[in-house]
């Protein structure tokens, strides 16, 4: 049996324990396990790696911005060992054929484990639900997607039991005035558009809905009325519209005020917001040149967990909450055995040192787009990452190959 020994964050406290692994899964958790294959980590803290419910790796169709290889390598360096790729690719993930096309690309190229979200803009057959990892609804027009008529949402979500993630901005509320600044972008797509969309869902949809990238504490309050779960991005927590980011801060829903981002962080650390996801959505620097024409979206998969670890070091979020929102809750929502140090779960861990604080520099990240809106912010990157018991990052360097990643959920049809 392979054993990893060290200071695990287990059952809400840091404990010196041995974790036994067989076939990539945790099979034993004890004070001491006798074995020949031991990996000892006397320094650093071991926590579950991140389950990122929301990334856009741009393949197929937009591979000058990112692809499964570069995106998943970035994920790995940021402590993410499972991600869900969003369906607004070309072709979009809205048919079995297009799903299989994306599945084959990701399977051959991904360093880390993955799931695929299916574009829900119509009723889907049960055989589709069996295969896909989750569903995504876009209520408004955004990068590369046309909106649906929100009135059909109750009907198309009725029989689905897997996770349904919704981009909630009310289409008719969005204005199209010329924009030259983040402030203009916020005025065109104000918080009220999100609030209106979430209110519609609360009033009309019975099933469980997961609201993507909330940008307003008010929409979280409304979502709670139906026990919808909510997700926030690091850019809505740590960036705001008054920063001098130009189009490199243009994103949907838009960055808000510093006051709002502070409230979102409070909601996250106090247990009201459930999940942090990166919404990694890179565009090339050339595409971001002209503010008004620039597509919305910014990269973030490699910096999400590192920024949160730094925030934990500052005392603004507990390690307990961090593990819940980054790993355990998304694992639970997706119904996969990841994101928790528990018997039967995948042995996916990161090992970090509180003292290994670094400035974020785009040149040290692995994105194809070559930039980050978090340039020069402090962060704590993992020194080691394990996926299914296999060491994947050793002292900050990757030691696995593309194609290691495995699709979830396992499915006979895809074998
Ligand atoms: O800003 C955004 N960019 N919001 C989205 O909903 C899509 C994303 C993208 O794909 O670029
Ligand atoms: Zn997105």
Brief account:
The chain is an alpha/beta fold and 415 residues long. The chain has helices at 68-77, 96-109, 126-131, 153-157, 182-188, 191-204, 217-224, 234-238, 258-269, 304-313, 319-334; strands at 2-10, 13-22, 25-30, 37-48, 50-55, 80-85, 113-119, 134-138, 164-167, 210-211, 229-232, 275-276, 349-352, 357-359, 378-380, 384-387, 390-394, 397-398.
How does this structure look, described?
The longest helix is centred in the last third of the chain and has 16 residues, at 319-334. Helices cover 26% and strands 23% of the residues. Helix 6 (191-204) runs parallel beside helix 7. The strands form three sheets. Strands 3-2-1-4-13-16-17-18 form an eight-stranded mixed beta sheet. Strands 5-6-7-8-9-10-11-12 form an eight-stranded parallel beta sheet. It contains eleven helices and 18 strands. Bound molecules: (4S)-2,6-dioxohexahydropyrimidine-4-carboxylic acid (DOR) and zinc ion. Residues 56, 88, 142-144, 167, 251-252, 281, 295-297 line the site of (4S)-2,6-dioxohexahydropyrimidine-4-carboxylic acid.
